[in-house]
Amino acid sequence: MEKRRIAILGSTGSIGRQALDVIRQHRDLFEVELLTANNSSGLLISQALEFNANAVVICNEDKYNEVAEALQPQYIKVFSGMQSVCDLVTGDNIDIVLTSMVGFSGLESTIAAVKAGKTIALANKETLVAAGHIVMALAKEFNAHILPVDSEHSAIFQCLMGSAGAPIEKIHLTASGGPFRTWTKEEISKATKAQALNHPNWSMGSKITIDSATMMNKGLEIIEARWLFDTEGDRINVVVHPESIIHSMIEYADGSVIAQMGHPDMREAIQFAFSFPFRLPLDNRKLNFSELGNLSFHAPDPEKFPALVLAYDALRKGGNMPCVMNAANEAAVAAFLQEKIGFYDITGIVEECLNGADFVADPDLDTIFGTNTRTLAMAADIIRNRSI
Ligand code: MG
Q: What's the pLDDT score for residue 350?
């Protein structure tokens, strides 16, 4: 394998830090070219020094001086602002762009990287939820490969290898069920921020951890899978699998089901996106089937987790509705993390925004940005009314 040069957008977040851990184990195969962060200047500085990055971007301009003073003497280039991220990802010195920033804000830089024909290691699922039809069409036009980093989608991608292009009969998307899987609806309605942040299996950032508690994360992943694997929503089945050992499965027309397994560790999916089509060693925990014992499965409960119903609905309606759903959810999760609203207000706000938004059947990129902005404003109004 030839050495691959990597840009990590969002290097100080959970996925970014785990990606650097993968690179730490294969310094001869991967080189860090670009690191970007929103606010965490201290960590960005230490990462840039450890991996001798070519350049960094600190998006918060107030922190530019601090980062520049630390890194410029080491001949590491320092920039600030979102536009710099969009410019730098197109550089000839970059082969792979890991999109591990959170939320809709990752869309512009992802599109810039796609248009430059980079290989995208996609961890920013909101990008595909909001604008999947645009991003996938651009990827085709500019010959940019999009490799999934989301563990379920990496699993599906791996299950499809060697299928000789056989059509997908069904995708079985596994879900841990989150921290409230065994709670009653009454108990969930009183869930606090601390309880929602306490995920049983996966260690992740706060936005995705709340999304896992509402199961909106699985809703976003249904839409992500629709675009990554060019399949219809009614072929995507969600199954709750509390042990999180099977990361997802593909079913073919002959009823044969292929599963991909491992202990929950995001580094596996990150590394495979970096090394594809090759496989490299990793210092993770290996499966011991005699110790595993039983794996269990059950259907999700739409009464307790209405997010799944909302996501299937948004996907069926199509157009700008998934973008509305994503924007409303981002606003509502932020408000829940600030303890302004209750747990079921999150999906309540998403539902209200989906009902109130103007439908656009075939939105272009400007329409998507407009939809996002208008939905955030609509959600902010609803949040003010619901505030506790
Ligand atoms: Mg996932």
A: 98
